[in-house]
Amino acid sequence: MPATLSLPIIDLSSPNRLSSANSIRQACIEYGFFYLVNHGVDTEFMRRVFDHSAKFFSLPLQHKMDLARKEYRGYTPLYAETLDPTSLSKGDPKESYYIGSVADTTSVQLNQWPSEELLPNWRPTLESLFLKLLATGKELLSLIALSLHLDENYFEKIGALDKPAAFLRLLHYAGELGSHEQMYGASPHSDYGMVTLLVTNGVPGLQICKEKFKQPQVWEDVHHVEGALIVNIGDLMERWTNCLYRSTLHRVMPTGKERYSVAFFMDPPPNCVVECFESCCSESSPPRFPPIRSGDYLNERFRVTYGSERDLKCSIQSKNQGCT
Ligand SMILES: O=C(O)CCC(=O)C(=O)O
Ligand SMILES: [Fe+2]
Predict the structure, then answer these.
(1) Ligand 1: which atom is nearest the Cα of residue 250?
(2) Interface pTM, i.e. ipTM
């Protein structure tokens, strides 16, 4: 039986920012995960988001496939991706919908949206969620900068927040318990970018493994805290901090109950160079990773997880009809 964790709870609105920054530091060193409360996205609004999400995923497959993922935006059907590229399973039993930035002028038109007739109010609700989570994420990153003994505007200064390459992902896990080779809802993985903000509909399943290189792996349940966001550190933040902050392995186990979640991935823009923060290295602890452009790092990770766009079409066809 996995143990249940008591992750730290950080109050984003606390006037004592230094104390919050210290708690974030401890949480990121120990777990790479924490809860965030008073974050500005209210529970009633999230309830509406989950209603909209359920309406989308209950559309007939053909309607969803009309919005099949292109340029990493749109619908990804069941089994089309595995978050663990080393896994031999046929793919994770979840479907998802990706929305890229709604806040800058160049890539905003790449997003795909169901029509207003099909799903009234869907687009404005999701756009609003994107902007709310972006504001929350920026506020949180100023506390993360403080927690690393950096100026609170540090991420802005190094260009990490210029048109951040943020993605919103709606997820739907079918309620069935999978067969043996599909034992995961989402297979074990770490997130790629700076930070992820996660909201679930309260159905359990999320687990973390703190020591990713230790065998056997020990998995612990992340329980639901009503109204709190779950925050986790991504791989680029781990590189920036020279592994001081952990990008923790996590997965979703099926429980037999239908589950919905929304993940907001905050990544630096493609040209931002990610190299060890001065406050995280020293002569005795030199940088473990060479500098890398965020775009180069993320593209490679996406390529391994999702393959090319042709692969997506192919894998969908082969599951539904057979691949040509
Ligand atoms: O659905 C969840 O609770 C987690 C999803 C997740 O880890 C991801 O999409 O990266
Ligand atoms: Fe994740």
Answers:
(1) 7
(2) 0.99
